[in-house]
Amino acid sequence: MRLLPFIFFFLTMPVLAQDKLFLTNGTIKHGIVVSISQDLVFFKLSDTSIVQKIPKNNLYLIEKYDGTRYLFSSATVNSNTASPIGLPAKRNFIGAQPFGVLFGRATVVYERLSKDGKIGLVIPFSLTYDPNRNLFKPFLDSAQKAQAANMGISFITGADVNFYFGKSDSKKFFIGPRIRYGTDIYLGGIEGYSIQTQVGWNISKPKNKVAQHLSLGFGFARILTAPPGSITDPKQSYGWGSVNYRISFKW
What we know:
By secondary structure, the chain is mainly beta.
């Protein structure tokens, strides 16, 4: 007898997990959305009923059983006019970190959002250099060595994973891991990697083509190699932090 509530629950799950169709005439249909074509929605009231063909211009909203919603913006629609509510229309970001130029990093960043807009995979690439060897001579004992170590360029790259939270379409909080590897010319030609936890905000209105990211990172850096005379020791780890501002174009 104790099993009867569980049996009843599993038997009624298909009935409870129904899709909803909101028609332009004000009626609501409950059932199962089989598929969506360019002009039609194939729908049936139950597993055993026949499939109905409903023109998209008779619909303004579909709400799936899992909470996903599809909005049809006009009476004449095609396959490109229906998009899930709350999903970002633009999932690609390409941008730069302008303030990093002052500290010897020219950085380009690409970010790709998941379909639900909750996860962003970020790939950065930085060219590192000494913006002014006469002004900045970090971590070296003599000016001669500092000038030799700071000549030329190198690179730093890595990856971020941003987990986005919040219901606002224009401002979202994110948190995630941040990994970097490369040689920093501005810091005297030190090669190493860093692992940080990054928290920040993504500010971007859905209709705008520009997005801004502001974040703070905290973690540690591992030094792999350092030039002679550096006050940093190779094979050592140090506490590490970062402040990052990015402006991006999205599509």
